[in-house]
Write a structure and sequence with these properties.
Number of helices: 15
Structural class: alpha/beta
Helix content: 25-40%
CATH architecture: 3-Layer(aba) Sandwich
Number of domains: 1
Strand content: 5-15%
CATH superfamily: Alkaline Phosphatase, subunit A
Distance between the termini: 37 Å
CATH topology: Alkaline Phosphatase, subunit A
Shape: globular
Length: 448
Amino acid sequence: MVVGASGLLGMSLAELLRAEAWAGGTSSNKSIINIHLDGGPPQHDTIDPKPDAPEEIRGEFRPVSTKLPGFLISELMPKVASIADRIAFIRSLVGSAGAHDAFQCQSGFPANDLKAIGGRPAFGSVITKLRGLPSDPLPAFVDMMQGRPMVRGSARPGFLGQAFGPFRPDMSKYFSRELEPGMKNELAARGPNHTLALTLSDGLSFERINDRMNLLAKFDNFRRDLDDRGAMEAMDKFSQQAINILTSGRLATALDLDQEPQSIQDLYTPIISNLGQKSYTSEDNHSAKKLLLARRLVQAGVRCVSVSFSDFDTHSKNFPRMRNLMPIVDHALHALHTDLDARDMLDDVTVVVWGEFGRSPRVNKEGGRDHWPEVGPAMLFGGGIKGGRVIGATDRMGAKVVSRPVTYQEVFATLYGCLGLDMRATLQDPTGRPHHLLDNAQAISEIV
């Protein structure tokens, strides 16, 4: 994977680092890995099987026992079952806006919330604002989500502005994720900035970058004389941070999977049984290494990494497609937990796994499960989360929550707490109006 900058850094890298003001940072090394199951994971075929329901509800997969007495999950997840005592399972995630994006899994809010002033910022952008420092040698927020175009655009800074947007490295060297024709058209309509290629333009050396920075400093002296807000000074500071990130080598090293020992790469490489059905949009046996890359980034100092696995949008052929996809995710989650544990990183890294909604209880005529915003599944581990807890329950059909509903914002309140952030903190929008991080949500008391 290549890392650098384009243009005069393009100025794209510097623009992502620039802001009018930064809140004070800390030396905390706590971090979050946010895993989005793109398309909406089926609760029945993951962590909430319904073996006593009619066949058209329960589907093809058998439930299996876990390390938690009496708690069953899908046969497609034997590795997760073996560490269930280390994981918190949420079977009652509610409040989905029903949108095919990852925005609620990035912020806790629907995409239209505060849309007139830019929308709500993603969690990683908030972390950049509250915990990032101009002296940081790494970006605070790295977005590696693939999948549908609306998912790719979900990790956005909202009203905080582009200075607090995520870094989006080009991952095509390691992970290809073909798009359906309709998605390609949708992505093209969104413009070229859905990824950030951190590469130096041809012929642009670091010496030329510094020469141009010096030239700009001389050219803009008269503007500095008139600048009573320090904005020009801030621009220099964040542009310099861009150079520091590029020249430090830490980001490039973290993004280079080839530097990882083969034994660890093998840990993240499942053996594919080929019992399921793989389409050209599906993940493959290399996809679990996305979580290896995420681990390398947080180990290097990145505070929030977003990752996605596709494609859970199983309107047809749900069962053969899940036979292919879910074992990859199962293997990846187990490998990440094992790896973090072996490196004594589990207390510092919180992992959340979820999607934009669940899927319909009743199997349709195409053998698929449709969108189901009423309830969805989620899992959390690490970061001080109490494992071996099962939160909430659904009815016999897996259609409605019958106990302990959990909202997206409650999950985010839990994540903010894992980072030690004060929930009373506010963010100012461009009009100067303060906004709390969440709408009065509390952390999930059963798991913190």
